[in-house]
């Protein structure tokens, strides 16, 4: 039997996991969500959600993955709890589901990279977005994005995902830093920082019933928990890592990139006099086209070539971020078939890529479908899956989870015990509250 792959280095695992976390969520959704829901007051709620639910759940997934060293469904069998394997299955289905529309947005990003390359996108950004977002061309670019994703995953853990993310993640950070510095030099950027970061507590408290679960949902989506991805990535680990240290590195990096993306996008919009929210260009704030139309309109202000260069760099960065996440979504599904049915990786990745592509076709033909898939994924699948993971690790694995978390560290058991009891109580209740609010919003 062929031996199961592992990450070549610890840094390789960390970068792959950061690559998964940092994605469209950070750039396409987070900045607008923050800016339109109370600025730094929203950020505060988001950070609390990362700390209280996100990080503990992330460590829980790491524990399941590393302890079993097998795909996210089989993991539960290997841990001697086969009746809980449905949790892994829900996550894998969530990955399948999410990738179908994530890839459509990835296709838009490709379209904007070459729209900026040729310059046509600058003439009428709103119309341009309208004409490329849905239709046969969007479906074709969705196919192209999926093809790139499949190619990387087909190459395997070490020669595909690890190698690719080793280049991708540093590029994302460097390019975003460059763009943030550039945005800083624009006259009028100051108003953007103020809008982005000044706390508007009323905006949060007046709509707490929707803003709080939205912040929590975004925090979980952003950390890539719930969809079996982090279980899968950790299953390729050896015992000599501190899961806690790695988890913190990943969570901090992901939040940093989200905030940084806002420091690019928001000042850019304000420098161009566009503004956000009521009366601004993207009033309502978080629509699927917001970042595309907003950033492009802002750049159209610059003299020709500068606009094109900055546009290609910006959307090129978004593309890299999207790909380093899409490969993790596909890997969660691929690893199950490869491990359990001994299928070879490349044809499995290609076959699954095709099926997921087909599931995404409605989203590529009509953005209303995309919004629906995204809504169900983030407000239903995600909190349900995270709730089950937390329940399982806290109450079913229990002491075994603590033991696994301590492997590879020299620390005592105080912190791991705090984590365990946190999972069993506060984390579980918090995620339950989020779930209840989402249910209420969706169905009542
Ligand atoms: N974390 C990614 C983002 O913010 C999306 C993602 C979710 C990727 C779940 C993998 C698993 O864009
Ligand atoms: Na993210």
UniProtKB/TrEMBL annotation:
<keyword id="KW-0812">Transmembrane</keyword>
<dbReference type="InterPro" id="IPR037272">
    <property type="entry name" value="SNS_sf"/>
</dbReference>
<feature type="transmembrane region" description="Helical">
    <location>
        <begin position="139"/>
        <end position="157"/>
    </location>
</feature>
<feature type="transmembrane region" description="Helical">
    <location>
        <begin position="312"/>
        <end position="338"/>
    </location>
</feature>
<keyword id="KW-1133">Transmembrane helix</keyword>
<feature type="transmembrane region" description="Helical">
    <location>
        <begin position="248"/>
        <end position="274"/>
    </location>
</feature>
<feature type="transmembrane region" description="Helical">
    <location>
        <begin position="169"/>
        <end position="191"/>
    </location>
</feature>
<feature type="transmembrane region" description="Helical">
    <location>
        <begin position="84"/>
        <end position="104"/>
    </location>
</feature>
<feature type="transmembrane region" description="Helical">
    <location>
        <begin position="350"/>
        <end position="373"/>
    </location>
</feature>
<keyword id="KW-0472">Membrane</keyword>
<dbReference type="GO" id="GO:0016020">
    <property type="term" value="C:membrane"/>
</dbReference>
<feature type="transmembrane region" description="Helical">
    <location>
        <begin position="418"/>
        <end position="440"/>
    </location>
</feature>
<dbReference type="Pfam" id="PF00209">
    <property type="entry name" value="SNF"/>
</dbReference>
<feature type="transmembrane region" description="Helical">
    <location>
        <begin position="211"/>
        <end position="236"/>
    </location>
</feature>
<protein>
    <submittedName>
        <fullName>Sodium-dependent transporter</fullName>
    </submittedName>
</protein>
<feature type="transmembrane region" description="Helical">
    <location>
        <begin position="7"/>
        <end position="28"/>
    </location>
</feature>
<keyword id="KW-0813">Transport</keyword>
<dbReference type="InterPro" id="IPR000175">
    <property type="entry name" value="Na/ntran_symport"/>
</dbReference>
<feature type="transmembrane region" description="Helical">
    <location>
        <begin position="380"/>
        <end position="398"/>
    </location>
</feature>
<dbReference type="InterPro" id="IPR047218">
    <property type="entry name" value="YocR/YhdH-like"/>
</dbReference>
<feature type="transmembrane region" description="Helical">
    <location>
        <begin position="40"/>
        <end position="64"/>
    </location>
</feature>
């Amino acid at each position: 039997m062929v031996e199961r792959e592992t990450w070549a280095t610890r840094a390789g695992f960390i970068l792959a996991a950061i690559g998964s976390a940092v994605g469209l969520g950070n750039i396409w959704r987070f900045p607008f969500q923050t800016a339109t829901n109370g600025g730094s007051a929203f950020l505060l709620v988001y950070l609390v959600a990362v700390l209280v639910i996100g990080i503990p759940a992330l460590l829980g997934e790491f524990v399941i993955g590393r302890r079993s060293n097998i795909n996210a469904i089989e993991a539960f069998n290997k841990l001697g709890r086969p009746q809980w394997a449905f949790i892994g299955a829900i996550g894998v289905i969530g990955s399948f589901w999410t990738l179908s529309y994530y890839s459509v947005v990835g296709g838009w990003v490709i379209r904007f990279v070459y729209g900026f390359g040729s310059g046509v996108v600058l003439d009428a950004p709103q119309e341009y977005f309208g004409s490329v977002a849905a239709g046969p061309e969007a479906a074709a670019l969705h196919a192209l994005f999926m093809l790139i994703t499949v190619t990387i995953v087909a190459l395997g853990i070490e020669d595909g995902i690890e190698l690719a993310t080793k280049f991708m993640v540093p590029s994302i950070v460097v390019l975003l830093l460059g763009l943030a510095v550039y945005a800083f030099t624009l006259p009028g950027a100051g108003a953007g920082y103020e809008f982005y970061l000044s706390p508007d507590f009323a905006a949060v408290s007046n709509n707490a019933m929707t803003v709080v679960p939205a912040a929590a949902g975004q925090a979980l989506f952003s950390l890539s928990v719930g969809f079996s991805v982090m279980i899968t990535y950790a299953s390729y680990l050896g015992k000599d890592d501190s899961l806690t240290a790695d988890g913190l590195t990943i969570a901090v990096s992901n939040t940093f990139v989200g905030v940084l993306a806002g420091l690019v996008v928001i000042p850019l919009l304000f420098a161009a006099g566009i503004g956000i929210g009521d009366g601004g260009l993207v009033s309502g704030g978080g629509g699927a086209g917001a970042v595309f139309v907003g950033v492009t309109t802002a750049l159209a202000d610059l003299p020709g070539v500068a606009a094109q260069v900055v546009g290609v760099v910006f959307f090129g960065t978004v593309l890299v971020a999207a790909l380093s996440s899409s490969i993790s979504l596909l890997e969660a599904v691929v690893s199950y078939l490869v491990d359990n049915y001994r299928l070879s990786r490349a044809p499995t990745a290609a076959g699954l890529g095709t099926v997921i592509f087909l599931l995404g076709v409605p989203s590529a033909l009509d953005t209303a479908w995309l919004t629906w898939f995204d809504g169900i994924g983030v407000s239903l699948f995600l909190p349900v899956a995270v709730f089950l993971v937390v329940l399982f690790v806290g109450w079913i694995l229990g002491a075994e989870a603590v033991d696994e978390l301590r492997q590879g560290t020299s620390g005592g058991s105080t912190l791991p015990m705090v984590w365990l009891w946190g999972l069993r109580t506060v984390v579980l209740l918090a995620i339950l509250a989020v779930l209840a609010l989402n249910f209420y919003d969706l169905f009542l």
